[in-house]
């Protein structure tokens, strides 16, 4: 069982509080296990920030960056229950979810001005943020590269793509907006967005040091190399911690129905006027959402994006059910084979 350490006062810097301590007291872990927070995950090893410093440990149980764990010697013995988890469909296309960061309070969605705002990508990330239980904040990066006309249009596009979500323009180079982003990054904040969005440069500005490697983007397409190749949790100068992440090429949704509804609150509000409660907002008569699309009061792109995410989420759920059913069939086939083998052995 976990026992509190007298020199563990550094843990609140990483987000430790009395609730985590109570969970640790009831966790199934060896006596003397040390609490800490996972700062980095590599193959076969995790780095854990503890009251005794940074510890390299072997993960006996699966864990993610941001998890609170109990370390027994040189191994993670237990993972405390997560408050929130930012997840996406596995990049491999399998139906399992990939945890990008655990116990997150704020999701900073980076959208680079220089490359042109992509509302669809922002909507996906905002939906995942809402679904995680964290609060999304859209950060319009690289505003120092504005040609004088694109900033206003980009802010308008982001306001339409993320209704009710704060949008903060920032330049990590000039420092404009960095204080505003720092104020919005409450608790544990995670930076997400495409490669070349300036996440690591912004992370360095927030951290007050060159903690993350950076690189220039290609002029031909505005894309950057993956200078951040792993997720890492670092303490901020003020309260809170920051998780920087590699650029996300694919952002699949999975079990994100509530997050999609919150990200598309304007569509959900319109749906209240549909004739049928189970309206799919497609070809049903009396559909208020489709009518708003036809009238132009709901942008066609916005409606198409909503329909696409809903279909994708439903497909992922069906795929998961199919996978679970296949696993059950596989287990029963193995049981049957084992029974037949035993019967044959008895006969001999």
TrEMBL record:
User: Where does the record say this protein resides?
Assistant: Cytoplasm
Q: What is its EC number?
A: 3.6.1.-
Q: Where would one find coiled-coil regions in this protein?
A: none
**UniProt binding sites for Zn(2+):** 274, 279, 281, 287
Per the record, the domain of life is Bacteria
Per the database record, which ranges form the EngC GTPase domain? 102-249
Q: Which residues form the CP-type G domain?
A: 93-251
Q: What HAMAP family does the database record attribute to this sequence?
A: GTPase_RsgA
Q: How does it assemble?
A: Monomer. Associates with 30S ribosomal subunit, binds 16S rRNA.
What role is this protein assigned?
One of several proteins that assist in the late maturation steps of the functional core of the 30S ribosomal subunit. Helps release RbfA from mature subunits. May play a role in the assembly of ribosomal proteins into the subunit. Circularly permuted GTPase that catalyzes slow GTP hydrolysis, GTPase activity is stimulated by the 30S ribosomal subunit.
- The identity of this protein, by name, is Small ribosomal subunit biogenesis GTPase RsgA
Q: Which gene encodes it?
A: rsgA_2
């Amino acid at each position: 069982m976990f026992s509190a350490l007298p020199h563990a006062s550094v843990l609140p810097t990483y987000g430790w509080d009395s609730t985590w301590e109570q969970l640790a007291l009831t966790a199934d872990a060896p006596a003397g296990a040390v609490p800490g927070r996972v700062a980095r995950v590599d193959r076969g090893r995790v780095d854990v920030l503890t009251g005794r410093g940074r510890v390299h440990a072997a993960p006996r149980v699966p864990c993610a960056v941001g998890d609170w764990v109990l370390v027994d010697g040189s191994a993670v013995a237990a993972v405390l229950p997560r408050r929130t988890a930012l997840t996406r469909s596995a990049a491999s296309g399998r139906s399992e979810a990939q945890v990008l960061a655990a116990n997150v309070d704020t999701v900073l969605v980076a959208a680079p001005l220089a490359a042109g705002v992509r509302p669809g990508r922002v909507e996906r990330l905002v939906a995942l943020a809402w679904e995680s239980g964290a609060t999304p904040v859209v950060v319009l990066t690289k505003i120092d590269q504005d040609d004088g006309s694109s900033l206003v249009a980009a802010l308008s596009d982001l306001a339409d793509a993320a209704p009710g979500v704060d949008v903060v323009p920032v330049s990590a180079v000039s420092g404009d907006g960095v204080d505003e982003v720092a104020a919005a990054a409450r608790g544990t904040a995670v930076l997400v967005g495409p490669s070349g969005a300036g996440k690591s440069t912004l992370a360095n500005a927030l951290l007050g040091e060159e903690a993350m490697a950076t690189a220039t983007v290609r002029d031909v397409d505005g894309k950057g190399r993956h200078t951040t190749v792993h997720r890492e949790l670092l303490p901020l100068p003020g309260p809170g911690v920051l998780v920087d992440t590699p650029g996300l090429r694919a952002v699949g949704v999975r079990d994100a129905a509530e997050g999609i509804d919150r990200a598309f609150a304007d569509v959900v509000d319109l749906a209240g006027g549909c004739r049928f409660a189970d309206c799919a907002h497609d070809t049903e008569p009396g559909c208020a959402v489709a009518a708003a699309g036809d009238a132009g009061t709901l942008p066609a792109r916005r409606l198409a994006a909503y329909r696409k995410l809903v279909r994708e989420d439903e497909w992922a759920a069906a795929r998961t059910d199919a996978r679970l059913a296949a696993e059950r069939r596989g287990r029963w086939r193995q049981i049957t084979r084992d029974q037949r083998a035993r019967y044959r052995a008895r006969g001999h």
